[in-house]
From TrEMBL:
PROSITE patterns per UniProt: FE_B12_PBP, PROKAR_LIPOPROTEIN
Name of protein: ABC-type Fe3+-hydroxamate transport system periplasmic component-like protein
Signal peptide start and end residues: 1-24
Keywords assigned: Signal
Superkingdom to which the source organism belongs: Bacteria
Fe/B12 periplasmic-binding domain ranges (all copies): 85-354
InterPro entries (alphabetical): ABC_Transporter_SBP (IPR050902), ABC_transptr_periplasmic_BD (IPR002491)
Species of origin: Pelobacter propionicus (strain DSM 2379 / NBRC 103807 / OttBd1)
Length: 374
């Protein structure tokens, strides 16, 4: 590694270290009583009271299960911990419960039917009858929700809060107005941990993921190639991409790539113009599409048929295209492995022989035996 690159790597290491301390900032010294992870915050007032801020800015108070209700806040803002029963909207929320070791003992409802789950722990809970499907997020069965008697709902949809307040079911908004940065994605487990008294498990997981990030940065710095990467897709009426402030964008930068939507800022799956997408596609080496196998995409050729506008972008004609495997979105408890895989995809020269677990590289054309009887 030449001197210029070494200096750049050391500066980047310092920057990442600062970023991972907090996307915004943390306060206090020694054993912190305040922790901020992206838009989320935890303020430990006393052993009997912890104040938290969710992704929508709502203030909630955590108290022990046997403690009296505090007199200075509305009962709808109070959550007794450790929480014993949870309904979760999002795949990442479910995976975070698994990290904390509470999924099979607390999860009672989800918004994805059993046949669309790939996690063994969730499928076991469906078979035992502990978990029920409550309907799609935009058409939730609130009667069934009440029957499950959750002590907490984890939702990415702030619009359901008034209904949940009416039902007297505490809720936490786990989405944010802008995309989760890398630190927030890694540290979200620390935000949920106090709801279940599982801070040690959260800290151990964060260290594991951070160690993987440190390792991939060091290995990526040895790569001979700095690929140009894009992540998103063109749909019938919209063009959506991952912005540079999203965890994906930040990770790809730390992995020594040129992320072509680095200058785009906002929410995950943010909309941009077709022209901008195609212009970036002229330079890209690697393209990650949102589309999965269920959309009929099994090769570059098939992707070009499904989405003719992308047929001439460079990853289709001369580069590589990757799509997420069905279980990818439900694997948020394996961030260390996902981060490593993304680094291996963009730097195959320093990850020789790596076998993909979460993504699939599209072949140029359909397999010759596709459609033939076995």
């Amino acid at each position: 590694m030449n001197l210029k690159r070494l200096i750049g790597f050391l500066l980047l290491s310092a920057l990442v270290g600062a970023t991972l301390s907090a996307c915004a900032k943390s306060e206090g010294g020694g054993k912190k009583s305040f922790l901020q992870v992206g838009e989320f915050a935890i303020n430990r007032i006393s052993p009997a009271r912890t104040e938290v801020t969710d992704g929508s800015g709502r203030k909630l108070v955590l108290i022990p299960r046997n403690a009296p209700l505090p007199g200075d806040c509305d009962p709808s803002q109070v959550i007794r911990v450790p929480v014993k029963s949870v309904v979760a909207y999002g795949d990442f929320d479910v995976a975070t419960l698994a990290v904390l070791g509470v999924l099979e003992e607390t999860l009672v409802g989800v918004t994805r039917p059993e046949k669309r789950w790939y996690r063994d722990d969730v499928k076991r809970c469906f078979r035992s009858g502990r978990i029920v499907y409550l309907g799609e997020p935009n058409s939730l069965d609130y009667e069934q929700l009440k029957q499950q008697q959750p002590e907490l709902v984890l939702t990415w949809d702030p619009s359901v809060i008034p209904m949940l307040d009416e039902l007297k079911i505490p809720a936490v908004v786990t989405s944010t107005p802008v995309a989760m940065c890398l630190n927030a994605r890694m540290g979200f487990v620390k935000f949920l941990a106090p709801f279940f008294n599982r801070e040690k498990e959260a800290e151990a997981y964060f260290r594991r993921v951070n160690d993987a990030l440190t390792a991939l940065r060091a290995r990526s710095a040895k790569s001979r190639d700095k690929k140009k990467v894009m992540w998103g897709d063109i749909y019938e009426k919209r063009v959506l991409v991952e912005p540079g402030n999203a965890w994906v964008g930040e990770l790809l930068k730390y992995a020594e790539t040129d992320y072509l939507f680095n200058d785009v800022y906002g929410t995950s799956c943010i909309e941009i113009s077709v022209e901008r997408f195609l212009t970036s596609g002229e330079d890209a080496d690697v393209y990650f599409t949102y589309r999965g196998r269920s959309s009929g995409v099994t090769s570059k050729e098939a992707l070009a048929r499904v989405n003719p506008l992308v047929k001439n972008i460079r990853p289709i004609t001369h580069g590589t295209v990757y799509l997420p495997l069905p279980h990818y979105s439900q694997s948020g408890d394996r961030l260390d492995e996902i981060f490593t895989e993304l680094a291996a995809i963009v730097h195959p020269d320093v990850y020789p022989g790596y076998r993909l677990k979460f993504f699939e590289e599209l072949p140029a054309t359909e397999p010759a035996d596709k459609g033939k009887p076995l």
